[in-house]
Amino acid sequence: MDSDLAAADRQPENHPLRTEKWERFQSLKKYWDLYLIMLPGLAYFIIFKYVPMGGIVVAFQDFSAFAGIRGSEWVGLTHFKNMFTDSEFYTVFKNTLLISLYKLIWGFPGPIILALMLNEVRHMLYKRGVQTLVYLPHFLSWVIIGGILINVLSPATGIVNQFLGMLGLEPIFFLGSQEWFRTVLVVSDIWKEAGWGAIIYLAALASIDPQIYEAAVVDGAGKWKQLLHVTLPSLIGTIVILFVLRLGSVLDVGFEQIFVLYNPLVYNVADVIETYVYRTGITQGQFSFTTAVGLFKSVISLILVVLANKAARKLGQDSLW
Amino acid sequence: MRLTRGERLASRLNYLILGFIALLALLPFLHVVAQSFSSHQAITSGRVTLWPVDFSFEAYVKVLREHAFVNAFKVSLLRTVIGTLLNVVITCMLAYPLSKAYIKGRSAIMFLIVFTMLFNGGMIPTFLVVKATGLLNSFWVYIIPGAVSAFNVIIMRNFFQGVPPELEESAKIDGSSNIGTLVRIVVPLSMPVIATITLFHAVGHWNAFFDTVLYVTDRNLFPLQVYLRELIMFNQSNISNNNGYSANIDSTLLALESLKAAALIASTVPILLVYPFLQKHFVKGIMLGSVKG
């Protein structure tokens, strides 16, 4: 220990390279145990995140599980060419964009409206009660919610179709109908997540300075004017940021939900990139082609997220990193 | 503050609509709960709405006696407990050093971690890696390939950065080692974030099903979600066969509606039991997550 200190003293102070190295060495020596405990986590990221990134080379090969990555033949961009001339891929890509767009248009305003409504409730117990109930579906798996949907939407015994029957309407096979399936996706997504999505807006609403409201009241603004001229303008920043970030993840369309609910009757309107990759990749063994499809998605997503984040940063306060 | 007549009306309408929305969130559950206590015949003839018809516990008794259900419940419970424990310990171990300025290379490591949130190898390359590690069809495939979440590392690191350094320094002056300081000073001070992350992971484990679909074909390793999926979506069950229902041909082929309902509710109960904690800590977690580091 003493000799270490002596050695430290001997370091020439105005030699940047040498001192930096020295510091690194000192840090390693003093905190070796802290470096050590990072290893399991780091090993995880390397093995299960970075090695698969290297595995993307499979997209440029004719991969066979038998030959492995080293033994498989290189085919360049063949799979990408096939992808862009494949009509099924177009359907899948179109479905991904459309379902995402519908969810965005119908689902995005939900949490905002809900938060604004909850914000007007003065009766705290009532507010808490409503919040407890609308947050709940967020915590249930899509398998459970899928089970409930299959139950209530069943054409023969489901309560929704019984209700339609009472109105004199024909029963509808919602989950097997190309016309209705996307509607089911959008509505059930709103049902599951709208309450949860409201939390972030409620937080933004809670941070509005009450003095602004008081000033508005003094100026003779009623409730409606306060909503229009104080609440909404204060919320617009949060709305814009969340909207832009949401656009950045437009290709993440809620894979588990679709996987649980879809069936061959509706593949035509419901099959999205990830369900397609699973079916043709894992179950049919077309590893190389589907890796190419997955890579296409990952690259576009990366570009979109980076752009969205730049935009969010330009627009003001917040960004993802 | 005095309200005009229009405003009072709007306020009442607001309460009413919110009440309706809350009911909408609840009613589908109540409907399934009612079915789970009703007879199959009452359900298929459409007599069950929100109240049980021909009330009985039979469906629950059958579900809880079903070997596959109990086994799936055990698998889910085991993966939730072991998986969550490992998630939290490894996340702490990674996040703590990353919160310290004296650890060299930490910004490079942070970049590597954040980058995995933006870009990944995709389903097929990840599958090939998991296959190469020999984890397919083993219990550990539920634990190891999802051992750390980048997002939670960031949340936890941000929280650790807020722990007053004076506390750690004084512990070290008292002769505490680096890891001793982490365990005895930092972790107890960080219980809010640890609780949040524990719940994040626990709910994730309990609800997970796709890793089974990808990596596991051994039915003995099926967790509850996959058991439910088979029961409800593919109508596969052998419950009704061995319990004296075989006189009814229909029920030997299809799982009874009341059984499906009972299995659904029985799998939801654990979530409902921890829901009060979930709500409290998750709301906090969302706020922590939006604090950027």
UniProtKB/TrEMBL annotation, chain A:
PROSITE patterns: ABC_TM1. Pfam families: BPD_transp_1. It is found in: Cell membrane. Residues 93-308 form the ABC transmembrane type-1 domain. The keyword Transferase does not apply. Its main location: membrane. InterPro entries: MetI-like, MetI-like_sf, UgpAE/MalFG_permease. Keywords: Cell membrane, Membrane, Transmembrane, Transmembrane helix, Transport. It comes from the Bacteria. The chain crosses the membrane at residues 31-51, 97-118, 139-160, 227-245, 287-308. It is a multi-pass membrane protein. SUPFAM superfamilies: MetI-like. Belongs to the binding-protein-dependent transport system permease family. This is Aldouronate transport system permease protein.
From TrEMBL, chain B:
PROSITE patterns: ABC_TM1 (PS50928). Pfam families: BPD_transp_1. InterPro entries: MetI-like, MetI-like_sf. Residues 73-277 form the ABC transmembrane type-1 domain. The keyword Protein transport does not apply. Gene3D superfamilies: MetI-like (1.10.3720.10). It is a multi-pass membrane protein. Belongs to the binding-protein-dependent transport system permease family. This is Aldouronate transport system permease protein. It comes from Paenibacillus silagei. The lineage of its organism: Bacteria, Bacillati, Bacillota, Bacilli, Bacillales.
